[in-house]
Amino acid sequence: MNRQQGLWAVVRLVAASALLSLAACGDAFAPLLPRDTVVPVSEATKYFPDVTKEASTGPNETSVGKPIASRSVVFTSADGKKKVTVSVDQYASSGDAAAAYQTAVQGSKAAPGFNPAATPNLGQEAFAGTSQVGAEMHFGLGARDGRLIMSATHAGDIPVTPSNSNNLIGLGGVELTTAKQVLGPSGSN
């Protein structure tokens, strides 16, 4: 593993524990939601112009509780130094989603280096904050809407500024709308 991969592994680990993400329960990941439940790279680029490619997609490895399906997408700049991750988890009931969300919030508050930010106006419940690994600081948020939990993080060479935080909140709002459109009323209620 090279130095940059090692740093990203640490960043992902801290983001997972500090920003609405705890270790997944059980030994297997939930089935994948369709790719179109998470915004395309063109939408991420609207909010973060240097983020121009989709680096990976797959199950949300940081899901909390027992989602029935999930999807996570990592977007990066051409050089890989700027990163935005967007994830969505679908639960069997809104009660299951609410319980998982509260577990994630409590885990975030207890994580070392976590500082809460103003609550974004997303979904039925939302939470945001910053976390730091060495000199690198990143911003993340999570929101619950019905049976869905959405999370988004920016990291790497994207500085934590009010503008970038607002951009991530905007992208998170588009993501919630996208997931609800794809999954329909039964998917989010």
Strand order of the largest sheet: 1-2-3-7-6-5-4
Q: Name the helix and strand elements from N-terminus to C-terminus, one letter apiece.
A: HHEEEHEEEEH
Q: Would you identify the regions where 5 or more consecutive residues have pLDDT less than 50?
A: 1-27
Average pLDDT rating: 85
Beta-strand residue fraction: 25-35%
Largest sheet: 7 strands, antiparallel
Provide the helix percentage. 25-40%
Assembly level? single chain
Number of strand segments:
7
The 3D shape can be described as: globular
State the distance separating the first and last CA atoms.
42 Å
Structural class by sheet pairing and helices: alpha+beta
* Count of helical regions: 4
**Rg from Cα:** 15 Å
List keywords for this structure.
alpha+beta; disordered N terminus; 7-stranded antiparallel sheet; 189 residues; globular; single chain; 35% helix
